[in-house]
Amino acid sequence: MASIAQIVRQIIEQLSDGVSQLVLMVVVLQDQNADVPPNLPNAAQAVLGTAVTLSKVAAQLAGTNYKNFPDIAKEIVEAANAVQSATDVMTTAMKTLQTSSDRKAGWAGLVDACRIMSGKTIKLLQIVYGAELKRLFTVADDLLSSLGGLDASVAETDPQAFADKASELASKAAQLAAYVTARAKDEESPILKAELTRQARALDDKANDLINAVNALLEDPTDPAKRKAVQSAIKDLEELIAATASTARETQSDMPDGAEESLPTLHKAITKKAAEDLEIVMHEAARAAAAPAPVAAATSAITFAPVAEPVRESPVDSLLEKLRRAADELATSAANKDAAGAATAGQDLLAALAELKKGCEQLTAINKDAGRKQELQNSIAQLERLIAAEMAAAKKAVETGDAKAVAEAKARAADLKRLLDNIHNQTVPTVADKMQQMKDIIAEIQEAAKKGDTKKVDALRALLGKLSLELEHEGKWLAQSHTDPKTAAALVKAIDALISATRNIDVSAAANDKAKLDASAKNANAAIEELLALSNALPLSTIKSVQNDLDVLELAVNAGDSVGLVNASAAMSKNVSALMKQAREAALQTADPEQRARIQNNLGALSKALADQLAAIKRFQMNPNDPAAKADLLSKTAAVRDALRALEDSLAGRAGATDGVADAAAVAAALNGITSTMSKLDQLAAKLKTNPKDKAAQDALKAALGDLDSLNAALVEGISKDPEIAIVAKAEEVKTIADDMSGSLAAKDPKATVEGSKRLAAASKQLVEQLRALSVAAKSTGDISRAAELDAAAENVNSAFSAALKAVKDALDNPDDAAKQLEAQRAIAVLKNAAERAAQLTGSSPHDEKDMRDLAKQLEEDFQRAKDAAARGDHTAVEQAIQKLEKDRAKFVRAAARREPHLLDAQKRKAAHDALEEFKSLADKLGHAARELARNPKDAKAAQHLDQVSSGAVKKAQEVMNAHNSSSVAAVQDLESSLDKLMDALDRGDAQAAANEAKQAVAKTNALVPLVQNETDPAKREKLLAALKDLNENHIRTILTDASEAIKDPANISKREKVREDIAKAKVATAQMIGALSPDNDRQGAAAVAKAQADVASLQAAIRSGDPAKIKAAKESLQKDLQAAIDTLRAAIDAETDPVKKKALETKLKRLEKLQQDLNNPNLTTEQLGRLNLQISDALQGLVAGIGADKLDELARNAGRVAPNAAKLRDTIGDGMDINGFMNLAQQLGVELSSLLGFANDLARSQKGSGQLSEDAAAALALDDLLRQMEGQSAPAPGGATLADLNNLLDQLNKLDKASATPAGPPPGQEKTFDAVLERAAETIQTAVRESQMDNAVSEGIVAELRKLAAAARGGQRQAMLISSRAIAANVQSLVTEISSVLGKMGAKNPKEQDRLIRNSQALRNFATQLKILTSVKAASIDKDNDSDESLFSVTRGLGKVVAESIGSLDTVKITVLKENPNKK
What we know:
By secondary structure, the chain is an all-alpha fold. Helices cover 83% and strands 0% of the residues.
């Protein structure tokens, strides 16, 4: 029997085409007011018949499949009745049309009947299609609610009720499992089908686990362990239900209905699970981003989901716990002078020791590893000595009350517990132990089967099953932890072989089939031997052994146990030798050159640390009573431990935080490429200078310039994969294009201005999208405040771009209107300011001290989050916390490093540097410390180590901030930030945000009062007081008044600009305060630059007023203050020690000096003065930003300038080219490239010898001399994408019409009209087509028809709407056919992409058929219909998204799997 979904699909395929044809026919005939054609009644009857069939099937299903779910059944029946009624209305309308004398009214009635029938039909289809999932969710919600009400304490008070409740729960779980199985059968996606099937089986298993735990509790209702087991089983089942519901929801991706949202318990569980899954996926994606392609491809054979590190238990854990309690009791009794308590605790301690010795003797008798036997015996002997030492100290403490004796007893108790942790580690069965145990069990099963002892066989089968699960988990953990994909794949293969063989053993033993049993046993033993050989070569497990040896060694040193020291040293020597061999082999097998380099470097560091430790051991053995020798040995041992942690991280593929380049090999390749292209461009430019008409040289130069984009992007990405750095580059690109457009406008060049607006539209849109993507990522990690900042930055750019484009259009339309020209230049300046704010938000900030303070607070929270997660043993949460920590740590380090060179006091500068280095070291250790504690949350030593690392890092961060007086400076920067945000809000027309920021500005000003009052230096206090008084009396009040006026009248630009002038003047006072507070040289003279910027704002206001006297006065003020600003900036540049950065800053200063000369020109027109004024502001801002920026930020900014400059240069090449203009542009590009390469090369060189640079990347740095030599060349240039890529980009830009330069529409998902939704869907697909490397004629056809449909919807052209919807469906079917063809060629390759394509194909079919029906509803009545419109909008958005995804998947499969060559035309 077909499932519900299958029945629905069959009917919808028939119905969608029939409805579309019928409505098209009726609409055409209505428009013509034609006679009723003979075939119309038959066509209508066919559609009505299909609709009636659907109605009947739905009603039948409601009465059978959903009879126990009255709400669902009622909804289906009501919708089915509505369809039946609609068909009756349509039948009546048809008869009326055929018999009525008023044909026009008859056609109108029939069209309306078509609309009603189509709308009710699609509603029924959606209800029936979602019913199966809604039923599943309802059962899941009910089960979760019932589980929450299962109270284990009732087992004692009312055992029968408790048993009945548990039985009822098991029945519900079985029902849910049955529904999940049914869902799986209907699912086309292989991955979802497999996952649902697995989850259905797991539901049965977990329900059985719960019943077993309940039965066990009913036998002894007071047993706390059994109560805990019931609660654990409940929790497991709850988590599985949430996971199953989440998977089931994925099967409804093509028609989401949010069915679970009305079920509170389930919705809460799914939401929690989704958040956890998202965090895990983000963490894994971040780790995977650094992994090289070969490893990713090779490890794709590992198809299991990631597993947590196995929880390992020792058979003597209960005895170890007795000893821990007795040791604590003895120490407590000693501190309390409790002789009787101490005696009892001592006896307990000795009794527990005797039990432990007996248990360990049994273990050593079984264990065949002589080395491990000896290590355990040594630890027991050391334990005896420690117990004797604690008892002696306790006796002395009880008798004398001596504080030193009490402290000694506590110390020995702590040492004893640490040794017990090591004994736990030594007695935990290894993978080899378990495999040997499995071999023994298999042999016993064979023997018992021969004797016909079925009872023993059954008992052994149970043991074998438990052991198989444990080994499967262990094996998968080892596989996912291994660096070599081949070894990992071999492990997986051996695990699968072993599990398969043990299952066959179980089946054949149960059936008493001795022949199959023997064959399966042989296969199992072969798999065990293979696993043994593979696991013995894994270094990660050996690291644990060395760490245990270090623990034992430290205990021996602290206790003065010379015998224990010798034994621990010998054991460690043996394990270290094995580790070195294994790690070297692992390094050679690692495909990633960066990871290989890290492993090898960490091995070298470990070798040195071990040599130092060995020398310290010898010194200590010669002088065991020398405190210095003891301290030195413990310090050297700690260094070995740190080296082991670093080695473990590199072996596990964890790169950790790095302050160096992200991908040194990529940097090397990009440096090579750019340098080579620079030389080529220089030669070609020289040729063109001699002969501008040289066509071959022109073409070659275009091709070389065409290489720039990709090389430029590759260089930035190689330096840093942080998407925030990409935003800095994109923001600079927006500013550069905007500046060019400003120049074109001033030069009265409308063609260049229009071309610039097209480029600006594309770059601004990309910047907004990047900011919004970062915001989404911030929200997913719970960082709501950061997301709000990014959203505001995106909106600032978006609104500023819209305003700029409108102003530029007005200026082009009115070329002789000076006021409109000035307004366009002002609007462009606002856009550049918005882009700069985005760059500062994600890159180097003018408020480093504020950032350091905020990040230090965030880091403290990160540390605590990692500690809390580790204490819970929550590995996933630990990794999430570490990921966040590493990101915040990198930002803090960058901000501190930017400030460090500016410290005037050399002693303070060194102290800040040393503190920052210590902070970095401690912060980098925290991740490993948290992971260690998470493995064993009861490990007191690990908890103490984590506390020490985190508190030490917090302390060092504070020391760094103290050096810069960050807290005080940050308080003033808080006010500046609020003022900036106030201006941003006014610029984008956000009245509420502006009002809020105005209030914040008042609060931040008031917060400065205690800062001034608490200043102890009289001279500083006087300066601060004067500046604060100036702020309060002359600026803040004025800002509030003018801001209020601007908020009331948002269209009045003059009022808004008055606030900008007010804020610029206020910043003179804040700069004076910062100069008084900060010990940094660049902050001291900041007021002079702020004064010049305030003059710029005043001059801009004067120009706007048109008052010559005001203009003259403002200009003279700027001329005077600009010189002071230049002197201040020159002093800061002269103090710069980095030659590359200094050269870049000197170039910027020369530009400012040139602008200063222009300002002195008495013949400037008002329009020229206005633009020059804005250019001076830009230059000042650029210099201040450059002085405070780091190399990474400057690199990104240079990269952002290269792309538009290269494009501008390319546009000049051709017949009749202006060779002088060309050479000027080439020289400008050469300056940018020289600076770009200088910063990139210095960043790469800074990693040379640090262990972060591969041999290939280091070799590329030999280019340095060549780069230095080329700095003097007139027109150096680089290389990058391909000529085809660049031409394609230019073609796209050339095709942009004025519409492309209009303000962006509403955010995705918020469109209000059908045509807007269609345009958005078309743009989504078009973007995917642009990014694709393959021919996408079918998808382009969909885009074209979506746009035709949008145009028809806007114009109310019903026939065209219906025709386009049918054309879209036909194109979608062609895309589905293409997907099917590709799937047939793939075979079993890349199952992930295969599954995605299958799911997309399924969704595309459903979307296309729904679109036909819903468009028919829309065409039948253009009026708004909330229900059908909402469905139509949802389907259209879904279609756009899935087509775009399909384009990307097809690209991936065709190129990487099918090895097809890109064929984009």
